[in-house]
Amino acid sequence: MKTTIEDIKRVLWAGADTFRGVIDAANYKDYILSMLFIKFLDDTYEANVRELEEKYNHHEVRVERARRNLPFQLKDDIRFRHLAEKRFDPRIGALINGALQGIEDLNGELRGIFRSIDFNSEAVFGNTQQKNTRLRTLIEDFMDLDLTPANIEVKTGQTAAEVIGDAYEYMIGEFASQAGQKAGAFFTPPMVSELMGRLTAPKNDEMIYDPTCGSASLLLRAAKQADIQKVGIYGQESNGSAYAMARMNLFIHNCHGAEIKWGDSLANPLHLDADGNLKQFNVIVANMPFSQDKWAEGFNPGGAEDGSRKGKEKIFKMEAGLDKFHRFDLGVPPASKGDWAFLLHMLASLDSYGRMAAVVPHGVLFRGASEGRIRQAVIEKNLLDAVIGLPANLFYGTSIPACILVFKKNRTTDDILFIDASGKDAEGIPRYNKGKNQNTLSERHITDILTAYHNRSDVEKFTHLASLKEITENDYNLNIPRYVDTFEEEELIDIGEVQENISKIKAELEKVELQMEKYLKEIGL
C-alpha cells in the first residue's frame, strides 16, 4: 500500500503531539521537520542504492563507484534506521546530533543546515529522562512511515519529491498558525505566494531572489511558475531556524542548486557578483518583516556615536554613506521602520529589466518625512507598477491588512495601477474567503486580481489606473482609498418601522414576564 500525503501529515501531527505542551509550536517544528528530513534522506538513499545494485547486478566495485555519484551520501551510523535501533540508548540526543553532523560532513550542499538545532538540550526537552522519552517517542512516530520515492502515491504530473515537499510545507503552515506573532518570520500563506509568483511570472533561465526568504515557501511558489529545475534560486535569511527550514524545504523539492545564505540582508548582503557588488536578479519576491525596528543597527558594529546629546547617552544615526552598496542614496528610512530599507535593497538588486513583488504594511503607502521623500523618488524614477490591497487577517501572526507592491525596471508607461482586493465584488460577494481564525484567497480571487493587473483599466470599486499627474497632485500619497472608491452607502433606516418593532418587542416581553411570574408562583417561588 502506497504512502499518501495524508499519511505523511498524520505522522507529522503525531510528532507535534509528542512535543505539544512541552515546547512552543514556534520551536518544536525544528525537531519534527528535521526528523522528517532525516527519514526522507534514509529512505531515498536506500532506494537509490538498491536501484544501482539492480542496474549493475550487485557488482560491488561498480555499485560503489556509482554510489559516490548519488545526489547525497549516507553512512550506516548516521541513518534514521540506526537511530531507530538506538532509540533506547540513554545517549540518544547526542546520537541524533552526531547523525546530523555526519550528514553535514558527508554532503557539502547540506553543510550548516542543522547548526541551530540541538536534540540533546535539556533546556529544551527537560531532564535526561524526559528528554530521552520524548526523543524515543518522536523516532517511533516516524518508524513506520515509508518515504521511498517509488512507494509514494502521486497524482498525474506530480513527483514523489513534490508530495513530500507539499506535506512539509503544509506542516510549516500549520505550525505557523499555532506560533502567533513568531510565524511571520518564516511563512507566507500559499495563495499569497501563488499570487506573487504569477505577478512576477519567472521564466526558465532566470534568477529569483528573496532577501527575507523564511522557509523558502514563497521562493518555491515563484520558481514553480517556470521549470523549477531551470531557474536560479537565491535567498537570504537572518533567523537560523528559518534558514534551516528553507534549505531542507528546497532539498526535499529536489532543488539542489539553490543558494540560501544565513545573515542580515541589509547590513551584510551575501549575494554578490565577482566584483563585490550586489548580484542582479531577474525576479525578486519578498514577504519582509513589517516595520522592523532598529533595522540599521548592523551598520554600527563598532558602536559609533554621533555626539548629538551632550551629557547623555549618544545615539547612532544611519546615513547613506555608511552603505557601500549605495542602496540608500534616494533616502534613509527612519530607524524605527525598515520597510523602505528592504524595498531599496531589493530595487538595487533588481536587474535592468527585472520585476519584483513585495508584501508591505499600508503605512508604506502614505507615511511622510523620509519615507515620503523616498516614495516620491521611486515614483519619479518610474519603478512602481501596481499597488494591490489585500484583505485583513491573511497573514500568520498579524490581523492587519497588507498590500503587495509590484515594481518593474524599464517600464514603458508612467501610470500606476491600484487594485483594492479587500472588499466585495459587483455582486456584493467578498473578494476573499472569510475564515473563523484566518481569511484566505481562492483560485478565483487570484484570477480576478491577475486579470485586473493585466487589463490595467478602471473597474468600479475595484481598480483604478492613476496617471503620474494624479499621483503628483496627491503629493505622492499612495493610500488606496484615494484612488479606488469603495464607499458603500448605508441603507436608509425607516424610523417609524423601527419604533413599531420596538413596541412589538416590548409587548411580547410583557407577556413573557407575566407567564414567567405565573410559573414561579406554581413552584412556590
Give the topology:
Elements: H1 5-19, H2 25-55, H3 60-67, H4 80-85, H5 92-106, H6 122-125, H7 128-143, H8 160-178, H9 190-200, E1 207-210, H10 217-223, E2 232-237, H11 240-252, E3 259-262, E4 281-287, H12 339-348, E5 350-361, H13 363-366, H14 369-380, E6 384-389, E7 402-408, E8 416-420, H15 443-455, E9 463-466, H16 468-473, H17 495-522
Parallel strand pairs: 1-2, 1-4, 2-3, 4-5, 6-8
Antiparallel strand pairs: 5-7, 6-7, 8-9
Helix pairs in contact: 1-2, 1-7, 1-8, 2-3, 2-7, 2-8, 2-11, 9-10, 9-15
| Nearest-integer average pLDDT | 90
Main β sheet profile? 9 strands, mixed
- Helix tally equals 17
CATH homologous superfamily annotation of the largest domain? Vaccinia Virus protein VP39
Going across the biggest sheet, name each strand in turn: 3-2-1-4-5-7-6-8-9
CATH-level-2 architecture of the largest domain: 3-Layer(aba) Sandwich
**CATH domain class of the largest domain:** Alpha Beta
Order of helices and strands: HHHHHHHHHEHEHEEHEHHEEEHEHH
Work out the helicity level.
Answer: 40-55%
Q: What count of structural domains?
A: 3
From the alpha carbons, calculate the radius of gyration and give it in angstroms.
28 Å
Per DSSP E runs of 2 or more residues, the count of β-strands stands at 9
Please state the overall shape, judged from the principal axes of the Cα atoms. Answer: globular
Low-confidence stretches are 181-185
Strand content: 5-15%
Distance separating the two termini? 68 Å
Q: What structural class do the secondary elements suggest?
A: alpha/beta
- CATH fold name of the largest domain: Rossmann fold
